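Our preliminary data section would be incomplete without showing what the modeling component actually yields. Below, a chain of 258 amino acids is followed by its predicted structure, encoded as C-alpha coordinates that our downstream tools consume directly.
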Amino acid sequence: MLALHDVPDFMSFQADFAARIRDPDGQPTPHRVDPRRMRVYEELLFNNMDGFLRACYPVTRDMLGEQTWQGTVRSFFVEHRCQAPLFQDIPGEFLGWIESRAATLFPERPFLHEFMHYEWLEMIVSICPDEDVGKAPDPDGDLLSAVPILEHSARLACYQYPVHRISPVFQPREADGQQYCFLVFRDSNDVVRFIAINPVAARMVEILAEGRCSGRDVLLQIARELDHQDTAHVIEMGRTLLADLRRTSVIVGVRHLK
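Predicted structure:
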Protein backbone atom coordinates (compact mmCIF):
# COMPACT_ATOMS: atom_id res chain seq x y z
CA MET A 1 0.00 0.00 0.00
CA LEU A 2 1.18 3.51 -0.83
CA ALA A 3 2.10 5.41 2.34
CA LEU A 4 0.85 8.99 2.76
CA HIS A 5 4.38 10.41 2.78
CA ASP A 6 5.02 8.73 -0.61
CA VAL A 7 2.17 10.56 -2.39
CA PRO A 8 4.14 13.73 -3.35
CA ASP A 9 6.96 11.60 -4.75
CA PHE A 10 4.51 9.44 -6.70
CA MET A 11 2.78 12.52 -8.14
CA SER A 12 6.15 13.94 -9.14
CA PHE A 13 7.01 10.64 -10.80
CA GLN A 14 3.70 10.68 -12.71
CA ALA A 15 4.40 14.20 -13.96
CA ASP A 16 7.89 13.22 -15.10
CA PHE A 17 6.57 10.07 -16.72
CA ALA A 18 3.87 11.96 -18.64
CA ALA A 19 6.32 14.68 -19.69
CA ARG A 20 8.68 12.07 -21.12
CA ILE A 21 5.85 10.37 -23.03
CA ARG A 22 4.84 13.66 -24.59
CA ASP A 23 8.33 14.85 -25.40
CA PRO A 24 10.92 12.04 -25.55
CA ASP A 25 13.51 14.30 -27.20
CA GLY A 26 13.15 17.10 -24.69
CA GLN A 27 12.54 15.37 -21.36
CA PRO A 28 14.75 12.92 -19.40
CA THR A 29 13.74 9.36 -18.65
CA PRO A 30 12.27 9.24 -15.13
CA HIS A 31 14.55 7.91 -12.42
CA ARG A 32 14.79 4.11 -12.19
CA VAL A 33 12.74 3.50 -15.35
CA ASP A 34 14.19 1.16 -17.96
CA PRO A 35 14.63 3.24 -21.17
CA ARG A 36 13.53 0.29 -23.31
CA ARG A 37 10.26 -0.04 -21.41
CA MET A 38 9.79 3.71 -21.44
CA ARG A 39 10.09 3.63 -25.21
CA VAL A 40 7.15 1.23 -25.43
CA TYR A 41 4.88 3.76 -23.71
CA GLU A 42 6.25 6.64 -25.76
CA GLU A 43 5.53 4.91 -29.04
CA LEU A 44 2.19 3.45 -28.00
CA LEU A 45 0.58 6.70 -26.89
CA PHE A 46 1.98 8.79 -29.73
CA ASN A 47 0.94 6.23 -32.33
CA ASN A 48 -2.58 6.14 -30.88
CA MET A 49 -2.80 9.92 -31.13
CA ASP A 50 -1.36 9.90 -34.63
CA GLY A 51 -3.80 7.18 -35.71
CA PHE A 52 -6.88 9.15 -34.67
CA LEU A 53 -5.65 12.26 -36.47
CA ARG A 54 -4.47 10.43 -39.58
CA ALA A 55 -7.90 8.78 -39.97
CA CYS A 56 -9.63 12.18 -39.88
CA TYR A 57 -7.16 14.14 -42.03
CA PRO A 58 -5.82 11.73 -44.69
CA VAL A 59 -5.47 14.31 -47.47
CA THR A 60 -3.87 16.85 -45.14
CA ARG A 61 -1.29 14.23 -44.19
CA ASP A 62 -0.59 13.48 -47.86
CA MET A 63 -0.15 17.18 -48.64
CA LEU A 64 2.20 17.83 -45.74
CA GLY A 65 4.26 14.69 -46.21
CA GLU A 66 5.16 12.20 -43.50
CA GLN A 67 7.97 14.17 -41.85
CA THR A 68 6.05 17.45 -41.56
CA TRP A 69 2.90 15.66 -40.49
CA GLN A 70 4.71 13.74 -37.73
CA GLY A 71 6.43 16.90 -36.53
CA THR A 72 3.12 18.77 -36.37
CA VAL A 73 1.39 15.97 -34.48
CA ARG A 74 4.33 15.79 -32.07
CA SER A 75 4.10 19.55 -31.41
CA PHE A 76 0.39 19.16 -30.69
CA PHE A 77 1.11 16.22 -28.38
CA VAL A 78 3.72 18.23 -26.48
CA GLU A 79 1.88 21.56 -26.25
CA HIS A 80 -1.81 20.80 -26.02
CA ARG A 81 -3.89 19.52 -23.14
CA CYS A 82 -7.14 18.03 -24.45
CA GLN A 83 -10.27 19.17 -22.65
CA ALA A 84 -12.69 16.70 -24.23
CA PRO A 85 -12.84 13.23 -22.62
CA LEU A 86 -13.50 11.11 -25.74
CA PHE A 87 -10.98 9.83 -28.27
CA GLN A 88 -13.31 10.89 -31.10
CA ASP A 89 -12.91 14.50 -29.93
CA ILE A 90 -9.14 14.53 -30.50
CA PRO A 91 -9.38 15.60 -34.19
CA GLY A 92 -11.50 18.60 -33.19
CA GLU A 93 -8.97 19.58 -30.52
CA PHE A 94 -6.22 19.30 -33.12
CA LEU A 95 -8.20 21.52 -35.50
CA GLY A 96 -8.65 24.14 -32.78
CA TRP A 97 -4.98 23.98 -31.84
CA ILE A 98 -3.80 24.46 -35.40
CA GLU A 99 -6.20 27.31 -36.21
CA SER A 100 -4.01 29.97 -34.59
CA ARG A 101 -0.79 28.38 -35.84
CA ALA A 102 -1.55 27.48 -39.45
CA ALA A 103 -0.53 30.86 -40.90
CA THR A 104 2.84 30.69 -39.12
CA LEU A 105 3.54 26.99 -39.60
CA PHE A 106 2.29 26.74 -43.18
CA PRO A 107 2.36 30.21 -44.81
CA GLU A 108 2.55 28.59 -48.25
CA ARG A 109 -0.79 26.88 -47.59
CA PRO A 110 -3.20 29.64 -46.52
CA PHE A 111 -6.13 27.31 -47.20
CA LEU A 112 -4.99 24.66 -44.73
CA HIS A 113 -7.23 25.36 -41.75
CA GLU A 114 -10.33 25.61 -43.93
CA PHE A 115 -9.45 22.40 -45.72
CA MET A 116 -8.85 20.58 -42.45
CA HIS A 117 -12.26 21.78 -41.24
CA TYR A 118 -13.75 20.33 -44.43
CA GLU A 119 -12.12 16.96 -43.70
CA TRP A 120 -13.12 17.09 -40.02
CA LEU A 121 -16.74 17.85 -40.94
CA GLU A 122 -17.06 14.50 -42.69
CA MET A 123 -16.08 12.70 -39.51
CA ILE A 124 -18.40 14.78 -37.32
CA VAL A 125 -21.39 14.03 -39.54
CA SER A 126 -20.50 10.35 -39.79
CA ILE A 127 -20.50 9.86 -35.99
CA CYS A 128 -23.41 12.18 -35.18
CA PRO A 129 -25.67 10.13 -32.88
CA ASP A 130 -29.25 9.45 -33.83
CA GLU A 131 -31.64 11.99 -32.38
CA ASP A 132 -34.84 11.32 -30.49
CA VAL A 133 -37.10 13.86 -32.13
CA GLY A 134 -40.28 12.79 -30.36
CA LYS A 135 -43.15 13.04 -32.80
CA ALA A 136 -41.90 12.23 -36.30
CA PRO A 137 -42.16 15.05 -38.84
CA ASP A 138 -44.72 14.73 -41.62
CA PRO A 139 -42.66 13.56 -44.63
CA ASP A 140 -45.19 14.81 -47.19
CA GLY A 141 -46.40 18.05 -45.61
CA ASP A 142 -46.43 21.39 -47.39
CA LEU A 143 -42.99 22.97 -47.29
CA LEU A 144 -44.25 26.54 -47.37
CA SER A 145 -47.05 26.55 -44.81
CA ALA A 146 -45.28 24.29 -42.28
CA VAL A 147 -41.81 24.27 -40.69
CA PRO A 148 -39.30 22.24 -42.75
CA ILE A 149 -37.18 19.94 -40.56
CA LEU A 150 -33.56 19.24 -41.50
CA GLU A 151 -31.96 15.83 -41.12
CA HIS A 152 -30.40 15.92 -37.65
CA SER A 153 -26.83 15.35 -38.86
CA ALA A 154 -26.93 18.20 -41.40
CA ARG A 155 -24.14 20.76 -41.10
CA LEU A 156 -23.55 23.93 -43.09
CA ALA A 157 -20.06 25.27 -43.82
CA CYS A 158 -18.81 28.13 -46.01
CA TYR A 159 -15.20 28.68 -47.06
CA GLN A 160 -13.03 31.21 -48.90
CA TYR A 161 -11.18 28.44 -50.73
CA PRO A 162 -12.49 25.69 -53.07
CA VAL A 163 -11.87 23.02 -50.45
CA HIS A 164 -13.62 20.35 -52.51
CA ARG A 165 -10.90 20.63 -55.16
CA ILE A 166 -7.83 20.87 -52.91
CA SER A 167 -5.45 17.93 -53.14
CA PRO A 168 -1.70 17.24 -53.19
CA VAL A 169 -1.69 18.48 -56.82
CA PHE A 170 -3.98 21.51 -56.37
CA GLN A 171 -3.05 23.91 -53.58
CA PRO A 172 -4.17 27.53 -54.19
CA ARG A 173 -1.91 30.29 -52.87
CA GLU A 174 -4.72 32.83 -52.42
CA ALA A 175 -8.50 33.06 -52.23
CA ASP A 176 -10.33 33.85 -55.46
CA GLY A 177 -12.99 36.09 -53.91
CA GLN A 178 -15.77 33.52 -54.11
CA GLN A 179 -17.62 31.85 -51.27
CA TYR A 180 -17.86 28.06 -51.32
CA CYS A 181 -20.76 26.69 -49.31
CA PHE A 182 -21.52 23.06 -48.53
CA LEU A 183 -24.38 21.24 -46.89
CA VAL A 184 -23.09 18.02 -45.33
CA PHE A 185 -25.42 15.32 -44.05
CA ARG A 186 -25.81 11.58 -43.54
CA ASP A 187 -28.37 10.00 -45.83
CA SER A 188 -30.76 7.14 -45.09
CA ASN A 189 -28.01 4.63 -45.96
CA ASP A 190 -25.64 6.24 -43.42
CA VAL A 191 -23.46 7.63 -46.22
CA VAL A 192 -22.02 11.11 -45.68
CA ARG A 193 -22.90 13.39 -48.58
CA PHE A 194 -21.67 16.86 -49.53
CA ILE A 195 -23.92 19.20 -51.53
CA ALA A 196 -22.46 22.40 -52.95
CA ILE A 197 -24.92 25.29 -52.63
CA ASN A 198 -24.76 29.01 -53.34
CA PRO A 199 -24.58 31.62 -50.55
CA VAL A 200 -28.30 32.48 -50.80
CA ALA A 201 -29.25 28.83 -50.40
CA ALA A 202 -26.78 28.60 -47.53
CA ARG A 203 -28.51 31.49 -45.79
CA MET A 204 -31.86 29.75 -46.27
CA VAL A 205 -30.50 26.56 -44.69
CA GLU A 206 -29.07 28.60 -41.81
CA ILE A 207 -32.52 29.99 -41.02
CA LEU A 208 -34.18 26.60 -41.50
CA ALA A 209 -31.78 25.10 -38.95
CA GLU A 210 -33.36 27.29 -36.27
CA GLY A 211 -36.56 25.27 -36.75
CA ARG A 212 -38.94 28.11 -35.95
CA CYS A 213 -40.29 29.49 -39.23
CA SER A 214 -42.48 28.11 -41.98
CA GLY A 215 -40.87 27.70 -45.37
CA ARG A 216 -42.75 30.74 -46.64
CA ASP A 217 -41.56 32.93 -43.75
CA VAL A 218 -37.98 31.80 -44.32
CA LEU A 219 -38.18 32.80 -47.97
CA LEU A 220 -39.82 36.13 -47.14
CA GLN A 221 -36.92 36.85 -44.79
CA ILE A 222 -34.47 36.00 -47.57
CA ALA A 223 -36.28 38.38 -49.92
CA ARG A 224 -36.07 41.18 -47.35
CA GLU A 225 -32.37 40.57 -46.73
CA LEU A 226 -31.68 40.63 -50.47
CA ASP A 227 -33.95 43.67 -50.89
CA HIS A 228 -35.50 41.72 -53.75
CA GLN A 229 -38.49 43.45 -55.35
CA ASP A 230 -40.11 40.32 -56.79
CA THR A 231 -41.07 38.41 -53.65
CA ALA A 232 -43.20 35.94 -55.60
CA HIS A 233 -40.15 34.96 -57.68
CA VAL A 234 -38.06 34.37 -54.54
CA ILE A 235 -40.78 32.17 -53.06
CA GLU A 236 -41.14 30.14 -56.24
CA MET A 237 -37.40 29.60 -56.54
CA GLY A 238 -37.26 28.75 -52.86
CA ARG A 239 -40.10 26.26 -53.18
CA THR A 240 -38.10 24.42 -55.84
CA LEU A 241 -34.99 24.37 -53.66
CA LEU A 242 -36.94 23.11 -50.63
CA ALA A 243 -38.41 20.32 -52.75
CA ASP A 244 -34.93 19.38 -53.98
CA LEU A 245 -33.66 19.23 -50.40
CA ARG A 246 -36.54 16.95 -49.46
CA ARG A 247 -35.81 14.66 -52.41
CA THR A 248 -32.19 14.34 -51.29
CA SER A 249 -33.30 13.63 -47.68
CA VAL A 250 -31.75 16.81 -46.25
CA ILE A 251 -35.27 17.85 -45.30
CA VAL A 252 -36.92 14.86 -43.62
CA GLY A 253 -40.40 16.37 -43.32
CA VAL A 254 -42.30 19.24 -41.76
CA ARG A 255 -43.73 20.24 -38.42
CA HIS A 256 -47.19 21.71 -38.73
CA LEU A 257 -47.84 25.04 -37.07
CA LYS A 258 -50.72 25.21 -34.64
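The CA atoms of residues 160 and 179 lie 5 Å apart. The longest strand covers residues 180-186. Preliminary results of this kind motivate Aim 1 of the renewal.
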